Amino acid sequence: MGYERRKQVLHETIRGWMGYFKLADMKSAIEDIDKWLRRRIRMCIWKAWKRPKTRVKNLIKCGIKPYWAYMWGNASKGYWAVAGSGIMQQAASINNLRRTGYPCLMDYYVQLHRM
């Protein structure tokens, strides 16, 4: 699944899910699910950067210092572990994910409960 298709499916799914549960007061549950979803998105991004050379290049583009980009780009850790690391959280921060078009559950939640 490409980036744009993933974003579209996430928007549709979250919109439908939030519409179904909009009467519930579940802010803490939404925050936990949102954290998990962001980590899952980071994992998918890391998987898409298949080769170490690509990972290093993209980490540098995201503002990571070259030394750390090289260390993490060539690391042999699992996808889920790297997605939870400080490097990926910095490279694919909440603001970066929003700017690139990925949905945020809390944004939908706040939007529904303001009405």
Could you describe the 3D structure shown?
The protein is mainly alpha-helical and 115 residues long. It has helices at 3-20, 27-48, 52-61, 66-73, 79-83, 86-91, 94-99, 105-114. The chain has one domain (3-114). It has 8 helices and no strands. It is elongated, with a radius of gyration of 16 Å. The model has no long low-confidence stretch (mean pLDDT 88).
The percent of residues in helical segments reads over 70%
- Approximate shape: elongated
The stretches of 5 or more residues where confidence is low (pLDDT under 50) are none
The total beta strand count reads 0
Oligomer classification: single chain
Helix and strand string, N-terminal first?
HHHHHHHH
Structure summarized in a few sentences:
With 115 residues, the chain is mainly α.
Main attributes of the structure:
115 residues; mainly alpha; elongated
List the topology elements.
Layout: H1 3-20, H2 27-48, H3 52-61, H4 66-73, H5 79-83, H6 86-91, H7 94-99, H8 105-114
Helix pairs in contact: 1-8, 3-4
